[in-house]
Write a structure and sequence with these properties.
The chain is mainly α and 447 residues long. Helix content is 77%, strand content 3%. A hairpin with a 2-residue loop joins strand 1 and strand 2. 48% of the residues are buried. It is a multi-pass membrane protein. It is found in: Cell inner membrane. It comes from Kribbella pratensis.
Length: 447
Amino acid sequence: MGQREIRFVWCGRTCHYVPVAASLSARLARLRVDLTPWRGSRDFRILLVAGSVFFLGGMVGYVALPYQLYQLTGSNFAVGAMGLVTIVPLVVFGLYGGALADHVERRTLLVATGLAQVVISALMVANTLLPNPQVWLIYVCGALNAIATSLQRPSREALLPRVVKHQEIPAAVALSSLTSQIGQLAGPALGGVLVGSVGVTWAFSVELAGIVFATLLYARLGSYRAGEQSTAPSLRAIGGGIVYAFRRKDLLATYLVDMVGMFLAMPIVLFPAFATDVLKEPKLLGLLYSAEAIGAMCASLTSGWAKHVHHQGRAVVLATIGWGAAVGIAGLAPNIWFAIAFFAVAGAADMVSVLFRSVIWNQTIPDEMRGRLAGIEMLGYSLGPLGGQARSGVVADLTTVRTAIVSGGVLCVAGVVATSVWLREFWRYDARTDEHAVRERELRSAG
């Protein structure tokens, strides 16, 4: 038979030939990112484009703000203090924003918070034009922006299952993540160019333009009113969301696995020392910061297979273990290219974890609880990395940079395994039979 492009396949009692090229093409097709939600839902397209532009502009501002603070104060502490200023609004208004998203019309909340962000961003631009820009105003704007973002994000995330079909949620999550990763790569690069060439005023102006454009798009969404079972925002309503999350072990595991992974293995704060003092390649520091985003983007672009996975809890556990293992191996890197490669693998693994956690949330949480649970998720997403950076810094100061990175990876693997053993229901989770997933699927089909 020589080099003929055929393969012998045994299927029960039937034997037939399948062209290898056709088989390979079919397998590659399963990897391609699924564009079905983009083609089928006008409101998903609006959410995706608005979110992408908003995130891109925000990443430009993310570069400009610490640069301006450092230029005005000459203090690294003054730059880091912005995190302290924003953490309380993030916690308080993240939970309240989730409760609010479950009670009010979500398009209205998106537009109202968008308008607030327009005013805040305009103040940042105006401050740069003063003869002596005011540092206190930057902190005030940072705190106000944290409030507006905390109120807005739960509504935006809670809308996703309403604008696509139930079976399209994995593809919709992958597409949303892909556009965020593009913004994560392009935004800081654009911000750096603007800050270095024409100044922070132009950088903040680009952020302002992105917010205006996104808010105008949000105004074009359809109406998404709360159902009859909605609860007015209150401490009792917030507590109800927390109790619901803790009673459902599968949801609790999605939060805990991610927080364990981020708290124990978050290496970003060590990148400057790792590139400069350990690997002796300070000029390539930027590639360390980009590596995880590149890996995540590659995972998103080949995410077509995700819709065929039903044991999604198992996928989250294995992906987070992969994240920790890759970070630990990167810490042993003999050169910077080895480190970049494994940090990219870590980013891809983290993206897989994000994808399946989001699918579980969007396919199983009732609409009347979705905002509050999105608020809780936002806290876990934010606090885990913040705690992880503190842990990495302390361990590096007490030992070495390599020890901090490698030990974090090892502890992450051990912590995730322990968490999955403790919450066995998560490992056994199956989207085809889980009672919450079945209920939501039936409700969507009936609607």
